[in-house]
Specification:
Length: about 90
Amino acid sequence: MTHFHHLYSIENERRKDMLREAEQHRLVRMALKNDHGHVRLYSTMLAWTGRSLVTWGYWLLSHTGQRPTQSKTWVYKPELVSPQMK
């Protein structure tokens, strides 16, 4: 998959997320109209926040994993080693 295709798929995912989000907000508004809408609202919001956090976590993980980062090589510094470890 080329870089462009990759970006395109990310964009697609984002669009899907936005649609999902709009749907979620619509559900929230509907829940508010109900008598016990508050409980429903909070559970919906909690579920949604949790889901988006998980999604972002996965997204970040997959992206940091794919990119060949210029990671700093470990430098051994004896002065940083605690006396107990010597």
